[in-house]
Design goal:
605 residues; FAD/NAD(P)-binding domain; 2 domains; seven-stranded mixed β-sheet; five-stranded parallel β-sheet
């Protein structure tokens, strides 16, 4: 058994793990750092093994990147409304870990691939991390600090079906779809995709374009199909992503992360304001419904109208996404048979549905999402103590559970008082709660241990920006540079976030870490807590320009100046000035009045 000593161990080499390792490498050039990655390549969700031809980014050109290296612009044939094929994100992350180095070591040199973590324990003041490789040999890592960046897309949710042994064909989750032979195999003709989410839709479209006969099954006993909306921009904004990410737009969604001001009080605390908010979201939903034309496509195959979402767009109760390919609706309507029903059992290459329909299938592709991170490498006592989700069946202390229940009940009352709109959700499917929520301060820090931090454990709109900003906060936290609120205040804030998340995002909010419209407000909050301000550009530009990677360029120098850390300059570190810059029109402060007019017009249209 090998044993090694490090100053910091990062678990996971996805976007969050890469950002944390990169910052540590910059701030601690002599520090002993290792990144443990269970896969064969870097990138997490975006790694080469998960990629496939129909996989596209949900970020636009110029936003899906870190501040110190701009992505080379993809060729125009790989771009639609600013979105681009995910393979370019994969290549960008591979280039990133190769091009960034410190003290003669690249980031890739510091990653140990095929090194799945089997356990993390605390022994006095040290963390002891065990890894077991595919050969069965074990390696032990000792460290005083840990950053867990294992993410929320690590444990696939694969349904269990009656008759699986009789099916005689593969069941493949979205995680494994990229490395499968489904699209290229001539023996696979009939493809069945299960699930109503964006990942299911991506596999449906990829299979259609590969010439397969595609059936799409969305269970009737679930949340139903997701919303798929256009990315069309308005006025000076290149895309809907740009509009939605502005700080001004954040005022139009009831959020505890958006700083309270006269506008939020008017919009969310008055009858007129709530009516206005509802009108905005109905307008956005109407545009999506018109684009899909569920009832009016004359050539649509059977069941196309079953793709209508069950709950309003505002509530986000089903996992949809932004349309990032130009021919999505045409291909779905003309080539895909939609079944909105539950699977009863599987037979020999047959999927049998409730009501009697039999669907011929050479493969089942599961776009069924992810189970909550089980953090199985921690024992139950550590999971409870650190504030990580754990199964309700494993609840060790009814007294602790009751205390949190009381805190969250009080917080819920405050949320409804501040945001009365959230008091009356529509009738909806609600997933059974099986685990406790995340109870981490700022979705990063445990309440009782400042030697470990968790990054990348939330759902939000820009994982690159979130990863960079979380890395700064986590570094300040682990280096004892941030002054935390009292324990009581941190508990109240956690309870408030959990209560709000459940109200705002229904089934998706039960984990307390779902903030799809709050990414900008969240990153502003955590940077402000450690006193970093260089990413702010003044009231007008801050309000009406979408935040981008360039805004974060000065953070490292500001951090170093603030905390008086001496960081020797490393000549082999790639400076941001050497990176290829992305192009594109931006909103200037001189045009802010026009921007405001167009923004309001686009929301009300």
């Amino acid at each position: 058994m090998d044993s090694h000593e490090f100053d910091l161990v990062v678990v996971g080499a996805g976007i969050a793990g890469i950002a944390a390792a990169r910052l540590y490498q910059q701030l601690h050039p002599d520090g002993r750092l290792v990144v443990l990655e269970r896969d064969t390549c870097a990138g997490g969700v975006w790694n080469a093994r998960r990629s496939f031809e129909g996989f596209w980014s949900q970020l636009t050109v110029g936003t899906g990147e870190f501040s110190d290296l701009s992505m080379i612009r993809p060729p125009e044939e790989d771009i639609y409304q600013g979105f681009f094929k995910a393979k370019h994100t994969t290549q960008y992350l591979e280039d990133y870990v190769d091009q960034h180095s410190q003290a003669g070591q690249t980031l890739r040199d510091r990653i140990r691939f095929c090194c799945p973590v089997s356990s993390i324990k605390k022994a006095e003041s040290k963390w002891v991390i065990s890894c077991n490789d595919i050969s069965g040999s074990s390696t032990i890592f000792h460290t005083s600090k840990v950053i867990v960046a294992s993410g929320i897309s690590s444990t696939p949710n694969i349904p269990k079906f009656l008759g699986e042994k009789k099916f005689g064909a593969p069941l493949i989750h979205h995680r494994e779809f990229g490395q499968s032979a489904v699209l290229s195999s001539t023996e696979i003709r009939n493809v069945t995709v299960v699930g109503g989410s964006k990942s299911a839709a991506d596999m449906v479209l990829a299979s259609v374009k590969a010439g397969k006969n595609v059936s799409w099954i969305i269970r009737r006993s679930g949340a139903g199909p997701g919303w798929f909306v256009t990315n069309e921009g308005k006025g000076p904004y290149k895309s809907a992503v740009d509009i939605g990410s502005t700080r001004f737009f954040s005022n139009f969604t009831p959020s505890i992360l958006t700083p309270e001001n006269w506008l939020t009080r008017l919009l969310h605390g008055t009858k007129w304001g709530v009516t206005f908010i509802n009108a905005i979201w109905r307008g956005a939903a109407h545009q999506a419904l018109v684009a899909a034309d569920y009832d009016g496509r004359a050539q649509a195959k059977l069941g196309f109208d079953e793709l209508k979402p069950h709950t309003p767009l505002f509530w986000q109760n089903a996992a949809g996404g932004i349309l990032n390919q130009p021919d999505f609706w045409e291909n779905i309507a003309n080539h895909v048979h939609i079944f909105h029903n539950d699977i009863v059992e599987l037979d020999d290459h047959i999927v049998r549905l409730k009501g009697g329909d039999d669907v011929a299938s050479d493969v089942i592709l599961c776009g069924t999402g992810w189970n909550p991170s089980d953090f199985s490498f921690f024992n139950i006592d550590l999971r409870v103590g650190l504030g990580l989700p754990y199964s309700l069946k494993d609840a060790p202390s009814s007294q602790d559970a009751e205390r949190w229940a009381q805190l969250e009940k009080k917080a819920d009352e405050e949320i409804l008082n501040q945001f009365p709109l959230l008091a009356n959700p529509p009738h909806h499917f609600h997933e059974a709660v099986r685990t406790t929520p995340y109870r981490l301060y700022n979705m990063i820090a445990p309440l009782n241990d400042d030697s470990i931090a968790f990054v990348g454990h939330m759902v939000h709109s820009n994982h690159f920006r979130g990863a960079e900003c979380q890395a700064y906060w986590a570094m300040a936290y682990l280096d004892k540079q941030v002054t935390l609120p009292s324990l009581e205040d941190r508990e109240l804030e956690i309870a408030r976030r959990v209560a709000w998340c459940r109200r705002r995002y229904l089934s998706h909010g039960v984990g307390g870490n779902y903030i799809p419209f709050e990414s900008g407000a969240y990153t502003d909050k955590i940077l402000a807590e450690i006193g970093l301000k260089s990413h702010r550009k003044g009231f007008l530009r801050d309000s009406f320009m979408p935040p981008g990677p360039k805004d974060l360029v000065g953070l490292k120098d500001e951090y170093v100046d603030k905390f008086h850390r001496h960081v020797p300059e490393a000549k082999d570190t790639i400076p941001s000035s050497s990176a290829q810059l992305h192009g594109g029109k931006s909103v200037t402060s001189s045009g802010w009045v026009l921007s405001l007019r167009h923004l309001l017009h686009s929301m009300l249209k």
